[in-house]
Amino acid sequence: MLEIQDLRVKYGGIEALKGISLTVEEKRIVTLLGANGAGKSTTIRAVSGIARIFSGAVRFNGHDLRGMPAHLIQRLGLVHVPEGRRIFANLTVRENLVMGAYNNRDLHDLNATMERVFSIFPVLGTRLNQLGGTLSGGEQQMLAVGRALMSKPRLLMMDEPSLGLAPLMVKEVFRVIEEIRSEGVTIFLVEQNANAALRIADRAYVLESGRIVLAGTGAELLDNPRVKEYYLGEAGE
Q1: What is the rounded CA–CA span in Å between residue 59 and residue 147?
Q2: Which of 83, 86, 207, 181 is nearest to 143 (CA)?
Q3: Stated pTM of the model
Q4: C-alpha closest to that of 182 among 156, 143, 148
Q5: Is 235 within the bounds of a domain?
Q6: Contact 4, 151 (CB under 8 A)
Q7: CA-CA distance, 221 to 129, in Å (whole number)?
Q8: What is the DSSP secondary-structure string of 75-140?
Q9: Which of 74, 84, 85, 230 is most enclosed, with most CB atoms within 10 A?
Q10: 56-83 b/e with 16+ CB inside 10 Å = b?
Q11: Domain assignment present for 129
Q12: Do 49 and 93 touch, CB atoms closer than 8 A?
């Protein structure tokens, strides 16, 4: 569904991505792991049209995304949930959700999609007129994901969805990711919580200093000594 080949991204004279290649198959959860500064967010930003691609190829369902504006990439069904949630703090929950469906002019379909979001995040249905900025961190993350779902994505890219959340809310976030996938949405997940991410991943990649250094199934990387030592906090073998 998503194919990245020899992707390079530069910020000034600094090469943030040094020729990475990976694939995301349809209806799978694919996780990209790495420490701060490894290039994880840059990868997603390049795919979604926010970061400029220096060289390499990015294809989504056969469409060449290089040079394509972000709003046109979104219309193809590839949607980005950014790190830090980035909701509209001064808009209500309902207004935030409607913003996610700005391409949809069918009111009946919009309302049906919103009901689907409420089935996944019931709390949002009880906070429709509450300003987004007054929600808790976990509720804001729900709203950010719900806003993305309003555009009915085929592939949902999530950047650090568990960052800064309490343990119970982290567990809920990963449950929701699996639920979204069960409804047919493909997930490309950037995450520092390696243990939780690998447990739900069909396939995973480890990014270090702008390069892919490990790849395999989620189970394989959970059992990899290098991953255990550097990302799971366990002693290496």
Answers
A1: 24
A2: 86
A3: 0.91
A4: 156
A5: no
A6: no
A7: 43
A8: HTTEEEE-TT----TTSBHHHHHHHHTTT---HHHHHHHHHHHHHH-HHHHT-TTSBGGGS-HHHH
A9: 85
A10: bebebeeeebeebeeeebbeebbbbbbb
A11: yes
A12: no
Distance CA 216, CA 206 (A): 9
Number of structural domains the chain divides into: 1
pLDDT, tens digit, 9 for 90 and up, residues 26-67: 999 999 999 888 999 999 999 999 999 999 999 999 999 999
CA distance 33 to 189: 9
Strands 203-208 and 29-33: parallel
Give residue 84's domain range: 2-199+209-230
Task: Say if CB 49 and CB 144 are below 8 A apart.
Answer: no
CATH code of residue 168:
3.40.50.300
For residues 227 and 221, give the distance between their C-alpha atoms in angstroms, rounded to a whole number: 6
Residue 204 domain-assigned? no
Does 236 reside within a domain?
no
